[in-house]
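A student in our group prepared the protein record below, which I am reviewing. I have pasted the whole thing underneath without changing anything:
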Amino acid sequence: MEASNTLSLSKEKREHVSKIRKLIFTKDVGTIIQGIEFARSLKEVEIFDYFLEGVSCDEARSEIVPNKRFTGSEITQSYRNFALLRLIAYAPDECAIAVDIRNTVKIKLVNR
């Protein structure tokens, strides 16, 4: 699914996704913030949609359930949660996935 999702993006956006992926999937908060800020500066809904596709809400428990991109090991999960929360928080209002999550869930992640 990830490959077809990426292929629907323009070449330039695929390059941006690759750069953001390298920055946000690290174990360094400063580097993750750089990746989030880079994504924010682009203001491209498709890029946020790419990363947030498959993230869901467990409304009964008021939790965010991460997609496979944001599911990590015991060591990396807290960094992935940090990146995911920031992407949701800073996504443009045109990003329906993020807006739905922001409107539905009190921020609390399910570690899976």
Remarks:
- Residues 2-104 form one domain.
- The chain has one domain: 2-104.
